Amino acid sequence: MKRTNNEAAESSPSIALHTGIADPRTLIMRNLRQSGIYVALAVIVALFAVLTGGTLLSPGNITNIVLQYSYILVLAIGMVIVIIGGHIDLSVGSVVALTGAVSAVLVIRQGQPWWVGVLAALAVGLAVGAWHGFWVAYAGIPAFIVTLAGMLLFRGLTLQVLDNISLSPFPAEYQRIAAGFLNGLIGGDGYDAFTLLIGALAVAGYAVSGFRTRVARIRYQQPVESFPLFVARVLLVGAVIMYFAWQLAHARGLPIVLIILAFLVLVYGLLTRRTIFGRQVYAIGGNLSAAMLSGVKVRTVNFWIFVNMGFLSAVAGVIYSSRSNGAQPAAGNMFELDAIAAAFIGGAAVTGGVGTVVGAMVGGLIMAVMSNGMQLMGVDQSIQSAVKGLVLLVAVAFDVYNKRRAGTSR
């Protein structure tokens, strides 16, 4: 019996994929978790903008959000890679405190140049990461235990380094790392034109990258969204970026810490998506046995996962100590939970093998906007913690639900 052309196309995956255009509903369902966080971010921003009478989106407050939560976003980059690899790191808050303490002792107490403190903090972070990596990768101890021990160990070392006292202030050059701005470089009447230029370049880069990805997917006969939907997405993201840049341009200009964060997002986005190491991390987290049979050097990859986490914890430690203009024994308290929450809310899977750097950034921004919005509303700290906990629980429950549904549909 002869089949119609439509029936033949539906029964032949190769024909259906040849067009490179996927059914919109299929794309939405396939990327529900990743797409949902963007919708959630937009809804949360709109909600708190209304509840705070527009204060949330004021130029000064947007700048404050960038400055106040930049170190959590840096930690989230490293944490999502750890989680993709099937591990967890509970020590990052203590490492933030230790690296900031080492920098403060050298710069404030001993009078060393500010850059010596930065380099020393980064070296300590790398050493801590190597310590964790050795016990996880080569001794075979679960990362949960190793980093839990590290959380206690490095908090104790912080107390020893600081002699149980706070140190401050840092010199002005060190403070500029987290509190400095680039403005007035190319002028502007009542606004910083340089910030707008950087925003426009970011939009152009996003559009070019998205178009190249789309072309590559079509070339390999992978499903993509229709071209009008692609254009609409680029325009929407571009409008958000330019609005953000416009608000910064009317405040104090482009924060230096935002440049650092954008550089890290770009580098680690490429690392996870375009390098052999990134693919191996996904392979280990997705199916450890298959990765080993494929020739992946699991121990080496796991070792460098934790070295990288130590490095980014040190970067966050420098930013936090610069932001707070000093080092305190209790610095970094609970930072690990915020970083883990950002990764899970951003789409990382509990079992590993799934997650993106961009998703972790969006998850971190959701936490940042909620925290900032509730602070502007004068919500009690205990209620803020409860809300964050519920949001994390819902995100993980949604991940588990999706996996169970995918398992029963096979």
Strand coverage percent: under 5%
Multimeric organization: single chain
Series of H and E elements: HHHHHHHHHEHHEHHHHHHH
Number of distinct helices: 18
Integer average pLDDT: 85
Structural class: mainly alpha
Rg estimate, integer Å: 23 Å
Across the major sheet, the strand order is: 1-2
The end-to-end distance, rounded to whole angstroms, is 30 Å
As residue ranges, the low-confidence spans are: 1-22
CATH classification class of the domain at 56-183 and 252-346 and 353-403: Mainly Alpha
In the CATH hierarchy, the third-tier topology of the domain at 56-183 and 252-346 and 353-403 is known as: ABC transporter involved in vitamin B12 uptake, BtuC
Categorize the overall geometry.
globular
Helix content: over 70%
Q: Main beta sheet: strand number and arrangement?
A: 2 strands, antiparallel
Beta strands, count: 2
- What is the CATH architecture descriptor of the domain at 56-183 and 252-346 and 353-403? Orthogonal Bundle
